[in-house]
Hints:
The structure holds three protein chains of three kinds.
Chain A: H1 2-39, H2 55-65, H3 76-93, E1 103-105, E2 108-110, H4 120-141, H5 145-176, H6 181-186, H7 194-197, H8 199-212, H9 224-227, H10 237-262, H11 278-304, H12 312-341
Antiparallel strand pairs in A: 1-2
Helix pairs in contact in A: 1-10, 1-11, 2-10, 3-4, 3-10, 4-5, 5-8, 5-12, 8-10, 8-12, 10-11
Chain B: E1 3-6, E2 9-12, H1 19-25, E3 49-52, E4 59-60, E5 70-73, H2 77-92, H3 108-116, E6 134-135, E7 140-142, H4 152-160, E8 166-169, E9 176-179, H5 192-196, E10 202-204, E11 217-222, E12 231-237, E13 240-246, H6 259-264, H7 267-270, E14 278-281, E15 284-287, H8 290-303, E16 309-313, H9 319-332, E17 338-340, H10 362-367, H11 379-388, E18 393-397, H12 406-412, E19 417-422, H13 427-431, E20 434-437, E21 446-449, E22 454-458, H14 478-482, H15 488-491, H16 500-509, H17 520-530, H18 539-542, E23 547-548
Helix pairs in contact in B: 2-3, 8-16, 9-16, 9-17
Chain C: H1 12-15, H2 18-31, E1 56-60, H3 73-77, E2 83-89, E3 96-104, H4 113-117, E4 123-125, E5 140-141, H5 143-146, E6 147-149, H6 154-163
Parallel strand pairs in C: 1-6
Antiparallel strand pairs in C: 1-4, 2-3, 3-5
The complex binds iron/sulfur cluster (4 copies).
The site of one iron/sulfur cluster has 13 residues of chain C, from α3.
Amino acid sequence: xxxxxxxxxxxxxxxxxxxxxxxxxxxxxxxxxxxxxxxxxxxxxxxxxxxxxxxxxxxxxxxxxxxxxxxxxxxxxxxxxxxxxxxxxxxxxxxxxxxxxxxxxxxxxxxxxxxxxxxxxxxxxxxxxxxxxxxxxxxxxxxxxxxxxxxxxxxxxxxxxxxxxxxxxxxxxxxxxxxxxxxxxxxxxxxxxxxxxxxxxxxxxxxxxxxxxxxxxxxxxxxxxxxxxxxxxxxxxxxxxxxxxxxxxxxxxxxxxxxxxxxxxxxxxxxxxxxxxxxxxxxxxxxxxxxxxxxxxxxxxxxxxxxxxxxxxxxxxxxxxxxxxxxxxxxxxxxxxxxxxxx
Amino acid sequence: xxxxxxxxxxxxxxxxxxxxxxxxxxxxxxxxxxxxxxxxxxxxxxxxxxxxxxxxxxxxxxxxxxxxxxxxxxxxxxxxxxxxxxxxxxxxxxxxxxxxxxxxxxxxxxxxxxxxxxxxxxxxxxxxxxxxxxxxxxxxxxxxxxxxxxxxxxxxxxxxxxxxxxxxxxxxxxxxxxxxxxxxxxxxxxxxxxxxxxxxxxxxxxxxxxxxxxxxxxxxxxxxxxxxxxxxxxxxxxxxxxxxxxxxxxxxxxxxxxxxxxxxxxxxxxxxxxxxxxxxxxxxxxxxxxxxxxxxxxxxxxxxxxxxxxxxxxxxxxxxxxxxxxxxxxxxxxxxxxxxxxxxxxxxxxxxxxxxxxxxxxxxxxxxxxxxxxxxxxxxxxxxxxxxxxxxxxxxxxxxxxxxxxxxxxxxxxxxxxxxxxxxxxxxxxxxxxxxxxxxxxxxxxxxxxxxxxxxxxxxxxxxxxxxxxxxxxxxxxxxxxxxxxxxxxxxxxxxxxxxxxxxxxxxxxxxxxxxxxxxxxxxxxxxxxxxxxxxxxxxxxxxxxxxxxxxxxxxxxx
Amino acid sequence: xxxxxxxxxxxxxxxxxxxxxxxxxxxxxxxxxxxxxxxxxxxxxxxxxxxxxxxxxxxxxxxxxxxxxxxxxxxxxxxxxxxxxxxxxxxxxxxxxxxxxxxxxxxxxxxxxxxxxxxxxxxxxxxxxxxxxxxxxxxxxxxxxxxxxxxxxxxxxxxxxxxx
Lengths: 343, 559, 164
Ligand code: SF4
Ligand code: SF4
Ligand code: SF4
Ligand code: SF4
């Protein structure tokens, strides 16, 4: 019985998370278009539904109705597999992100995370590096030079930035002494946010996150002017939509990671001192998590429409000659802090 | 040889030549309006003024005889400014008409205004006005405002057509061309005046406003109006023939052609064509496919013995077509009754260009083998044979036999089976059992032999349904070059017709004729190897102006 | 390779990048709150100035005839071979007129060369930019669609007189 209930709760959580995730992804696209329009003094989508609110559904229908074209000299199997790898990896990553504290419902403690794994951070790192396979496969199997170049670029870029990303996360782990996301969030009580304690690490992780998600200014794998569409040049219909969704899902994960690791996760500073009821507190905390994520996502979009794309050599220079040393510096800084303040 | 120096070049000349002739011979252009190589010198336009050393004033190159040691400057400062002045004078009363003028694009005045005029006029007064639409004759329209009084048209009528019809009237800036009282510009060569008129004063009423010259393609070919075979250019726009103009050939037609040939030999190409093969089914002529028409013909031909079959070639078809017919008749079916109809109108020759023989290729048809085999029937014999019931099947190439006389029409109606190759529906096709659509002379490559025994080329100017202009190497207008399948003008106006030799070859191949020629040049090569008169010739040797061949005495020419 | 000469060397602050990026982000953030330029087309229509080159039209005189004399210059100059003119004779003073005047709007690139070359001010670029067709043949505009009363194109003709 207990097992069944546990399974039921897990399933419910999965369903809720997946639905929210898919909705967020589609609305993220909508907001991307809206925000870019605002930045460019335009109006953005405003025809389908109230202020264009149904635009995402129109987009999905459009993509569904498109013909699925597979180039004749593509490796059919891998070509079809690639978008699913990418999509699977990005959704699976979400399993370990905590979006609220433990709550008590009907006498049970429910964790507001799909799985509170004690090596959660490693899991995230591992999965995101798997994601690169999706893009590389797509690039290689399409049988097109543009796709191939896009695929190669994405693997090189991901590998380079994973290093600085890893080191910035190492700083966080040093402080929290745990690989468990829940523990990392709990360690940032009050204003002890890692972003404030280790600003350099914050900068490096944000930059790396941009690179890892292939977002402008680091969207070299799909650089339209040079590579048509990069790794997804030869994709259409729902397979293309897969890549599209994955990109935005990755953004959500990246922002969730940044919030969790550096911006105090679901913590709302000193909320336990306000003397609110248990339920309300949890609600505010979940909301604050979502709000923080929304802000980071807005930042992602905002940057995309403000900063032009880097050149490939600049990207590599930045990765290895700037970001990597900076993240090392951050590690030393954290170590020094621990030494001095003995935390 | 005496020598003259023009523009620093030392040139030899024959005594009696004028400066302009020597210059022209050597590729030096001296601008001129009134001078024409085939007409007498008039010297009234003053455009050809050149500077000659040791002469006190500028001299007109058209009437100054070249002499030994003469030094001429065509482009010296004085000559250039004189030309500029002449242009300014000519343009004083010339209307600003180019947009509505048919000559635009091939107008000497327009060209020279660009090349030799300063583009300024100091004349501020009202221009002289004059009649703009004068019908000088049945074919020629005159615009008095545009005339520059060069007198070329007058001299043409006097000297070439031999019919004094035109003259100048009035004086000064009112001078104009007019016909003599009671006369009309109606000599059989009147339209040549529109060619030589350097401006748009004389225009062809037939071609007037039909098309701009720069929108048409022009193809070198020959006129098929009579046995002269005047060299001409076929002007085509949107795959429709719009006009023919003469092309210089010293041996055949000089610069001229007659009105009849110019106006009436191309119109049949543009309308009422036989479009696709037709056969008679249940008494009705119906359109059908090539395969069916060929199969029907072959089955009928096989059903009769050679003595009951006759073939008629055509003096309107090319040598290639006639050759293939003769091969089919004599070589494959062993039919001895083969000849062609003559189209003579004795006494119609005028000693200028027009011939008695109204068909262009009588000599060629005969040379190509269309003549009765020993013991075979000739044309009259064949018709008699039909009347007597001896001949039951007639295979007739591109000739309207039934229209020649009601008697012939009656004769043809007695046949059991009549196959016709025809470009247009006519009196003969009405009686036919099978009609093969024939490409007209302007739709195929080929050769014809004129009455002088001169072998000349036909070139395709109009595309049929299965021809591609660029692949065939046809002349292309601006529009042809850039047209796509979606442009009306690129794919419209095409008939489904084939060169007769191709159809004959197809019919023959089902009956044992062993020929597989793809293009007419191959047919000609075949002819050159087995017909003595064509030995050593090919299309390149024939060239643009034809070549005289040795005609043996059996083939007699009729002027 | 010789050292590249720069307009000015970057200062330390600029080399640090971050302040510059923040400046850029500030700019885009500011422009998010600026008024929008978008003209919401089917409801609000753009009325172009006289200098605008919409679809070419033929000028129709007060008398109802076209000004065109079918000289064919527009057809000759048209870089995309969009115009087909067939002239014919008229008893009017101008002698020729176009029996057929067709512009293939799928070919036209709105360059205005036809207008520039016309000796009669007979073809001008209108303000009409709404060109919709459902098949190729519909895109070929004949005289019926091309002729526009002179009143409607007066400002364009005025513009041409001043600036051509
Ligand atoms: S005659 Fe020549 S110059 Fe005169 S209006 Fe005609 S085209 Fe123009
Ligand atoms: S009508 Fe023509 S050919 Fe005759 S005089 Fe005038 S310009 Fe010369
Ligand atoms: S250029 Fe002008 S006058 Fe000439 S055809 Fe075109 S519209 Fe008519
Ligand atoms: S605007 Fe340009 S492309 Fe269009 S019809 Fe005129 S000349 Fe041709």
